[in-house]
Design brief:
This protein is mainly alpha-helical and 397 residues long. It folds into 2 domains: 2-35, no CATH class; 55-202 and 217-382. It has helices at residues 2-15, 25-35, 55-85, 91-124, 132-141, 149-163, 177-188, 216-222, 227-233, 245-250, 262-275, 280-300, 319-326, 337-357, 364-396. It is globular. The model has no long low-confidence stretch (mean pLDDT 86).
């Protein structure tokens, strides 16, 4: 590391004011501070509260919280590959297949996203923001393992340029950037991100007879009888019990790379909450909203999907992943403490409503979070207005 530090210092003068590469200073600065802690100190006099946590370290905490989902997702890609072929494989073989399929998606996501960030930082003459450290990992985790890399590149470019830079950059975006990328693919290239595309098979591979790569949400939407029985009996003969409750809680089923395991998401949630990075109020209220709406539809709904037990909604699809890593986005979520409860609860409610009453979009968490991203400032406005009224009333009594 000392060698790298010396090399960076030796070329620094080229990027500083008056140097021949002055216009690329912020690109150099971003690379430097990513590798090493800044050596600058605050010059303001007086008493200050100092904290070792800066934005880069906060973002890295979120990335660390996503690692359980990433590692499990890599293994599950290989697991579903062997299930589809009717074969068995060792842990190492399964993980290797997932690694080979997942790493290129991550590389493309970071390369395209950071490349665009560097271009905008150079043109606008401002430091490179650290927000994409998280977004660059989120995008691959909400993609199927079979997604073409060129589509990952296009979706990432669209999300960064239209979803963030058009609004002024990190901290100014209205919508969650990673979900913007997924929504773009969902509507622009639906055949590659919906249907039976969730399992990597390989060139020339032959699936076991009767195999379907559909997600449990898609199967539930197509149910004509008892949803739970249909799910539990699905895969008879080649993967018995693939969609029972505990299997779905663990995440051993087809789906996006990082969102199938509710257990891994909860481990990530614990890291975020303990470190103070994520809001436990939003996470809890999302689950509460989904469970409450599930119970309500059990009582009044008439379709088979509406009769699915409420607790199943908590472990299928991307509800847990969205609640932990996307609904809690500090830029696009509600900021007031009371507002966080309403914001998260409504995400859970709309997720189940979309799932049950619009089978064309079975993964309701994506649309629910994007919708509430738009309304988050309005929720905060009403919460602050209500607080003002209460204080005025107390002052006049």
């Amino acid at each position: 590391m000392n060698f790298l530090r010396k090399q960076l210092d030796s070329v620094r003068h080229n990027f500083e004011k008056g140097g021949k590469l002055e216009k690329y200073y912020f690109a150099y600065e971003a690379f430097d501070t990513f590798l090493f802690s800044p050596n600058t100190t605050t010059e303001v006099k007086g008493v200050q509260v100092r904290d070792a946590v800066d934005l880069k370290r906060l973002m890295m905490t979120v990335v660390i919280a996503m690692l359980p989902c990433l590692i499990f997702g890599m293994w599950n890609v290989g697991q579903q590959h062997f299930v589809a072929l009717g074969q068995t494989g060792t842990f190492g073989e399964k993980f290797w297949i997932g690694l080979v399929r997942t790493v290129p998606i991550i590389v493309v996501s970071y390369a395209v996203g950071l490349g665009i960030e560097f271009v905008f930082a150079t043109l606008r003459r401002h430091p490179v923001n650290e927000g994409f450290l998280v977004t660059g990992m989120l995008i691959p985790l909400v993609m199927p393992a079979s997604i073409p890399l060129w589509q990952v590149a296009i979706a990432t470019a669209f999300a960064v340029v239209i979803g963030k830079e058009a609004f002024g950059g990190t901290g100014m975006n209205v919508l969650n950037v990673a979900l913007t990328a997924r929504a773009f693919l969902y509507f622009a290239y639906p055949s590659q991100i919906s249907g039976e595309v969730w399992t990597y098979l390989g060139d020339g591979a032959k699936m076991v007879s009767g195999y379907s790569g559909a997600t449990p949400l898609a199967l539930a939407a197509q149910s004509t009888g008892n949803v739970v029985n249909d799910l539990n009996s699905f895969g008879a003969g080649w993967a018995d019990g693939i969609y029972n409750f505990w299997n779905m809680f663990l995440g051993v089923m087809p789906g996006c790379i990082g969102e199938t395991s509710t257990l891994m998401c909860l481990i990530g949630a614990a890291i975020l909450v303990i470190s103070g990075v994520g809001s436990w109020k939003i996470i809890v209220s999302v689950f509460a909203g989904a469970f409450g709406m599930g119970l309500f539809l059990n009582a009044v709904g008439t379709s088979p999907f509406s009769q699915m037990p409420a607790h199943y909604h908590l472990v299928i699809g991307g509800l847990a992943f969205g609640a932990v890593f996307m609904a809690t986005d500090p830029v696009t979520a509600a900021q007031t403490e009371t507002g966080k409860w309403f914001y998260g609860f409504l995400i859970g409610v709309f997720t189940v409503l979309v799932r049950v009453y619009n089978p064309a979009y079975p993964e309701g968490i994506m649309l629910a979070i994007l919708l509430m991203n738009v309304f988050a400032p309005l929720i905060d406005y009403f919460v602050v207005s209500a607080n003002k009224k209460r204080r005025i009333q107390r002052a006049t009594v």
